[in-house]
DNA sequence: GCAAAAGTGTTTGGATTACACCCATGC
DNA sequence: GCATGGGTGTAATCCAAACACTTTTGC
């Protein structure tokens, strides 16, 4: 850090954090969008974000944004790319860091607030024009999510706590944008520590599927003691 | 972006960019370190970095830092994590974005300049205490490099233009911190478009190895037309 | 000839793929 | 009974690991 220009003159930036909130339902991965209630880009759809407060770590800012909008707490956040084109924000030099959060869509009741005139879930592959460079942010973040789904057991943050293997399979099919063989998918799932709840799906007009739950405790043990590594 | 605090009061941040410059030689991956000639942390070892200028994109800042120190140009840069703990910089709120560059160590003659009292290459696994949170930055960036080495043909940015298969193998051995079987390694390399130069290694007291060169043109064709994807 | 590393072939077992089949439920 | 998806087994194939062997150079 060779400060070739007077140090103080650099304190004229702003730093924001944009958070893509992912949810899953019925075979599709969604992002939570807000209709901006403030300038710039008032009235346009965007992902939630805010400036980072002076005493906040980046992940704290992400948590704050997430909690204000969804009222859920204790969600794991994942850092994405940072976007810093000089002209990306019409009101000044704002560099933004992307984060993403995985929530259980059915548990969330996001409501409009001071930031947002309106709020909606939209399937990732059906999002059209957003404010700022938010399309780019959503795309890069979704790509990162897809990569992480293959190497970390984070699909369980999107699925309901109790889920069927078919729901899980459809999540992977959407993320990989391809169909998978049922029997082979289940063979791949075998080594993952799941608890078979021996409960059945209800109100379906076919043979009801078994419900499962991720065994996070056994997962940690496996990682530590047996050198297990999640792979899908 | 709900500006709940007056917008202007946020323009009191600074944004920097730190660049880990990786090189390879003799079975080891190195990082280029500088001994700081300025406060804070004067006299301590650190990775090169600077504040991002007002009209610069992040990658431009990374290029600038790289070029000033190494005099090389046209190097591909890779973005890493962003670090923003409120107290990470003793002089104020400085958020930093990590980048990394891959250079051919033998082609570089980095020299001390106004930033740096001294400059040196150090093997990644032998770096001790650095200034700021730079150890964390180096580690996270190296991890990212190792991941990318598996899915992108970037080892050729580290290797000399003409290299032997054994040099390539040792690069992967260092990055994965494990030994590999020669025969199996070569089988894996088979599908990669390499040009066999039919030139031999010189001044070795054993059978001289063949020299190869990465065929980047054929690589692009393969990716486009045959759906090839690099994998190691 | 010997040491050292280059370079190649074969065997084996485990994982992945494709596909076929049976099962339980609602209507 | 039939439509719908749940759930499982098998054979064929591909791939990766282990290992042995031959080749070429300097001394």
Describe the protein's architecture and organization:
The structure is a homodimer of 232-residue chains. In chain A, β1 and β2 form a beta hairpin. The longest helix of chain A has 18 residues. The radius of gyration of chain A is 20 Å and the shape is globular. The N terminus of chain A is likely disordered. Chain A is an alpha+beta fold and 232 residues long. In chain A, the strands form two sheets. In chain A, strands 1, 2, 3, 4, 5, 6 and 7 form a seven-stranded mixed β-sheet that branches. Chain A has a two-stranded antiparallel sheet with strand order 8-9. Chain A folds into two domains: 143 residues, Nucleoside Triphosphate Pyrophosphohydrolase; 69 residues, Arc Repressor Mutant, subunit A, CATH 1.10.10. Chain A has six helices and nine strands, in the order ββββαβββααααββα. Helix content of chain A is 28%, strand content 27%. Chain B binds a DNA duplex (27 and 27 nucleotides) through α5.
Short description:
The structure is a homodimer of 232-residue chains. The first copy, chain A, has 232 residues and is an alpha+beta fold. The first copy, chain A, folds into two domains: 143 residues, Nucleoside Triphosphate Pyrophosphohydrolase; 69 residues, Orthogonal Bundle (Arc Repressor Mutant, subunit A).
């Amino acid at each position: 850090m060779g400060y070739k220009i007077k140090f103080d003159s650099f304190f004229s930036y702003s730093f924001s954090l944009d958070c893509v909130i992912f949810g899953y339902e019925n075979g599709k991965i969604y992002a939570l969008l807000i209709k901006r209630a403030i300038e710039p880009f008032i009235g346009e759809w965007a992902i939630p974000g805010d400036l980072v407060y002076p005493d906040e770590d980046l992940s704290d800012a992400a948590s704050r944004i997430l909690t204000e909008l969804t009222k859920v707490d204790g969600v794991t956040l994942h850092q994405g790319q940072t976007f810093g084109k000089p002209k990306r924000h019409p009101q000044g030099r704002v560099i933004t860091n992307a984060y993403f959060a995985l929530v259980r869509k059915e548990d969330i009741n996001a409501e409009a607030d001071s930031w947002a005139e309106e709020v909606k879930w939209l399937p990732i592959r059906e999002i059209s024009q957003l404010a700022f460079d938010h399309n780019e942010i959503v795309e890069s973040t979704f790509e990162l999510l897809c990569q992480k789904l293959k190497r970390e057991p984070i699909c369980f943050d999107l699925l309901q706590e109790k889920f069927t293997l078919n729901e899980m399979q459809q999540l992977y099919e959407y993320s990989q944008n391809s169909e998978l063989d049922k029997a082979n998918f289940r063979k791949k799932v075998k080594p993952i520590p799941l608890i078979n709840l021996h409960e059945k799906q209800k109100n379906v007009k076919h043979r009801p599927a078994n419900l499962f739950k991720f065994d996070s405790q056994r997962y940690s043990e496996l990682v530590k003691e047996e050198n297990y590594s999640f792979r899908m």
